[in-house]
Amino acid sequence: MFRLTPDPIAIEPFDSESAGGFVSFEGKVRNHAYGRNVVRLEYEAFSEMAVAEGDKLIAEAAKLHGLTKVQIVHRIGILEVGETAVVIQVAAPHRREAFAGCEWIIDQLKWRVPIWKREHFGDGTSEWVGIGDEKQVSQSNDAFTRQIRLPFIGEQGQQKLRDARVLLVGVGGLGSAALPYLVASGIGSLGIVDGDLVEVTNLHRQILYAANEVGRGKAERAAAFARRINPHVQVQTFPERIDSHNAERILADYDWIVDGTDSLETKFLLNALCKRLGKALVTASIHQMEGQILTVIPDGPCLQCLFPEIPQDGCVGTCSNDGILGVVAGSMGIYQATEVLKGILGIDGLLSHSMLLVDLRTGNSNRLTREMRENCKGCEGIVAELTPFVIQSLADAESRFGRFDIVDIRELDETPLLAVAHLRQPRSELGDLSNIELEGPTVFICATGRRSFQLVDQLRRAGKFDAYSLARGVEGV
């Protein structure tokens, strides 16, 4: 429940039988702001809209963090120093969800609910916070003094950054490095897409997150980090995985898209949609100590011009499978931020017609020239289909084929052992796989899906079209 009141807030008992964790936040009027003496505050609200947006915020918090009960009470009118301005109470099954939910609401409340604050100062003056506040604008400009001095930026360039709308798709290793520099440069609006939670194994390369944030939503923690760097940035979060169903909706309001994913399917989806919608896309990939980056602009060559045949997810190594040195992800993420800033400011050298390959082990880098390819489906904005001989799961194979064989092509010492129906002869009896005879639809399985993908591609080139590869290997069983 969200409630506005002109009366002093009396904190009421708060209980929920299904909850084990309870957190309350109480915000009070303090006697100073930006070094000035504050004597009172004044709050005004568009009441009907504020209550509607407040209730919507509560519903989102409950769904996102598994809260069982939420209550927010906010004062309106004149408040003296020491009076309570807002009380937030949340209940959840466990303390972690309760803390996370309360903090999320605190962050969101300030930016989303139409309640305006006026500060009354000891010198007799008063100012609405965030509305025509020249002092805050001046402070904001002060933060960018060093880059405004650059001859190719200046006040005009800084305004371009302030007007820019940038979307980060993924705030893992790449996005974690790109976000701080984009926000610190003065980007005005930032969107963050990520449906994952912070994991311990992320921390060595995903520098936005702290150890005590494990289990928290990446999108919201990244947004909180961005606001700490620049309180003026407008941040919108999308705590979901981007796919063909939601991508166009999410991309619509942004001009520059930063691809920080490790999914080939997602990269080609973003490529086609950015072409269709006239957006600029900066996409990067990393592997162990190497990285590559390119930029797709509306009138330039696209990702599919370079790679007409779209690889299947799993055909190349990921950080979780092959490992990654954290600084590699950070370096390529900073390259991405640099590309976005160059594009917004009109600085020469954008990777719009080339791809940069970087080897951090040797310090070498190379540029490959890219050209537009005739009849490219990506340039036409058509989302490409994945390779048809890849099966996403054994259940899909069952539904598609009914009867089929499974061939495990892993080495004898690789685990775990497979205990599934349709399994053909043991691995030790397989012989030369390139000459294997197929007795009908046959699904090949390896550890990650890469070896089986390459084998099936080879078999199909030899005319054996009943060969299929299982995506993600034994992880997909």
Task: Please tag this protein with its features.
alpha/beta; Aldehyde Oxidoreductase, domain 3; Rossmann fold; 3 domains; eight-stranded mixed β-sheet; globular
Description:
- It is a single chain.
- This protein has 477 residues and is of the alpha/beta class.
- It contains 14 helices and 21 strands.
- The chain has an 8-stranded mixed beta sheet with strand order 12-11-10-13-14-15-16-17, sandwiched between helices.
- α1 runs antiparallel to α2 and α6 runs parallel beside α7.
- The longest helix has 20 residues, at 326-345.
- The model is unreliable at 131-139 (pLDDT under 50).
In brief, what are we looking at here?
Helix content is 32%, strand content 24%. It is α/β, with parallel strands linked by helices and 477 residues long. It folds into 3 domains: 2-132, Molybdopterin biosynthesis MoaE subunit (Aldehyde Oxidoreductase, domain 3), CATH 3.90.1170; 164-369, NAD(P)-binding Rossmann-like Domain (Rossmann fold, 3-Layer(aba) Sandwich); 390-476, 3-Layer(aba) Sandwich (Oxidized Rhodanese, domain 1), CATH 3.40.250.10.
